[in-house]
Structure prediction request, 758 residues.
Amino acid sequence: MLPIYAEVILPIPLPNLLTYAVPDNMATACRVGCRVEVPMGKSKHYSGIVAALVDTPPQGFEIKEVIDIIDTTPVVNDIHLKFWQWMADYYMCTIGEVYRAALPSVMKMIEDTYKPKTEKFLSLHQSFTKEIQFKDLFNDLEHRAVKQMSVLMAFLAGSGIKIENGVITNHGEISRQKLLKNPDLSPAALGALIQKQVLVETEKEVSRIEKYEGEIELYHDLTPAQQTALDQVESLFAEKNTVLLYGITGSGKTELYIKLINKYLEQGTHVLYLLPEIVLTSQIVRRLQKVFGNTVCIYHSKLSDAERSEIWKTLYSGDSPKLVLGVRSSVFLPFNKLGLIIVDEEHETSYKQFDPAPRYNARDCAIVLAQMYGAKVLLGSATPSLESFFNAKSGKYGLVELTKRFSEQGQPQYLIVDTLEAAKRRQMKSLFSPQLLGEVKNCIEGNEQTLLFRNRRGFSPYVECQSCGWIPVCENCDVSLTYHKRDGRLVCHHCGYCMEMPTKCLACGDTALKTVGFGTEKIEDEIKLYFPNARISRLDSDVTTSRSRYEKIIADFEDGNIDILTGTQMISKGFDFHKLRLVAILNADSMLNYPDFRAEERAYQQITQVGGRAGRSQIKGKVLIQTNNPTHPVFQDIISNNYMLLYSRLIAERSKFLYPPFARLIKIQLKHKNPQLLDHEADRLADILRKSFGPGVLGPEYPLISRIQTLYIKEITLKISRNHYGSAAKKIINDAIGYIKSTTTQAGLVTAVNVDPV
Prediction:
């Protein structure tokens, strides 16, 4: 028998796979996609994935042996191994870093610590065969054991026991936990019934995947506009792998998704429904579960490791159709038969992973993954990214437009308020214009709701001494500390450093400290002064410290228990609030006054998305934009609901200055504790890269925040034409970085490559 060698992926950033000899007694069990325990270095052991089996070992070093085979069957399929390699190549990281991001933590351990969940169930003892046997039992319990009688009646009501013609045909079953949820039922009384052999208790393996126990509803019929759009999508799928659905807010894209999902589930395939953030899942989960029941499977980072492992194994081994609803990490799941991927809100930056590597974009990865499976991709958005819309207009993707709102009220009315002029006339009331306060008053009187949007949490962005100009800053990062009034603290939103709010200036000792600017916490406090009897709440990451807290706020707003809700971008997309009439954007200029070529695109998307929450049922919605620059083209595009005008203007600028989609960007970040050394090494790297990429090398420059967690930061941005963007260019970059790191005079230089930054 020829010796076998396994090329193994380890969850560490190694440039190459490591090869191990497979002992003869493990040869038949060792398969591609299985996990194996292997040695690394003098004493470390790792759980690796077998990427390939070969019969020739590499030359020049000692080959160590595989210690153990962890899996009897593979946990990663061939398509995903190919996908991992593509991701490593494209995003300029190692396949080990992809492996580390892909598998749940428990599956990366040497010993498979996953244990099935078990639960105790109660059933009727087999000696009970006829209905008449209950008569004497009831008489006995009714007079001598009332508590046991209560437990027995609850069991009979909830267990699904069946009696036909006086004969018990199904002894029924109910979990002990579910039965005893009723606080009036006694565990001791239950124990007595088990001892009397009336009930039998058994332990069974159960799924950790949350089950839906509600009623299944038929999905709604589509409107003529929705049906036309669906027909166009299906027609385009015959010739295109990817279709962009450009549907305005409130046009009913989700209903169209549901019809399409049902078609693919009936064909026996898996469907992946991607959402940009966990916070969007609760409302959409309820809608989908009402249609598809327990076919829906939810996957995100807030699940326990055991829950994620169970979903992973269920998808890999199961042939039954499943609808997986998840965030960006869901692209790593080992689908058996993937037929369709829906990327909702495809423009969202949350699809991009920033740290650690792989710094992937789940939208783009979904398109590649679908091609590998032979599946289709539907990208959906009311405000598509310029790159996706360009691909659709140029014919790379199919394009379907849905431009009519589902409700009869149509698009909300947009109003621009010039806060600079209002301030000159001394009409501003704290943060609010007279128009805004008047509209809020009308909403409260009409039993309607208001949403106040400001994409900045906290009470105030910073505190300043009025005497000497001192501003409290983070000791680890080059940022001012944000004031959180409720906690009485100054907090760094980058590293978590905090300090108590000082009572006097720490530089000059004066007590003249003033908060500057405002965040959602201040908006909440200020609006209460004008509407003290209103029910007011806030939704941002400071408040929603737990999923249950977040879901309660959303549920209260849905049920009309909140009159005014203030919040960040967490409330800007995906939600459907039927009593919401007014949306107000405070300090809209802050979204535009940002040194980024995507600033106008982002501002249009954010304002349109949050504005689209208003007037989604029978209420005519209003969106009020407070700005110091009311004539800005972006605001005019929003008022006229003219995405094409925005697209035409911005795509011309991108073409002129060679920005995506006309060029690809790669951002190289260098970090070090010594700023002088960092300057020197960043300049060296830029000089090397300019030899190959010339004027396409921008920088090195300090970013807006030039120090985070004690490390100084410099960035080099490469603009590479689409024709020259490939493996050769990436090899030049990797070689240059490797050379700099190997020849630097001090240790501690950290580099990170971000392909297609957003």
Observations:
- The radius of gyration is 30 Å.
- Residues 413-456+533-652 form a domain with the Rossmann fold fold (CATH 3.40.50.300).
- The chain has six domains: 4-108, 126-197, 224-401, 413-456+533-652, 460-517, 663-755.
